[in-house]
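user: can you give me the structure for this one chain? tokens are fine.
assistant: on it. calling the predictor now.
[tool input]
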Amino acid sequence: MIPKDGLYYPYINVRNVNWLKATLLCFPHVLRMVPQGYIRNEPSEMREFAEILGTSNRPLLQAVNVREPQYEPVQHQFLNRLRSDFEQDPDFFIRVLLISLRNRLVTIRIGWCQFMRGSFITC
């Protein structure tokens, strides 16, 4: 069985080097979704993990551009799952959105609209 990589989500910059080390004991690599053109500002100890090669000659901490064609099938699977979940429980997403906005500062973008805690919806 081929070991699967871990995904660091929903953040881009890993905040705790000890967490990263422990996670790399369980997964051969940690992937993070990084928007094209995003400039990372992280401590040197984190950059080292992005330079050290693990299995398959890939960095231990790897940036992934989700717009690459290889990820398109997974995106369609995810959207189909969301569509199915929404059809079964239309209020689910609203409950999750309200809980997220109430409990922590989040910015959620859906299409052209942006939802932020403590402010209006902007589109």
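assistant: here you go. The two ends are 46 Å apart (CA to CA). The chain has two domains: 6-67, 71-116.
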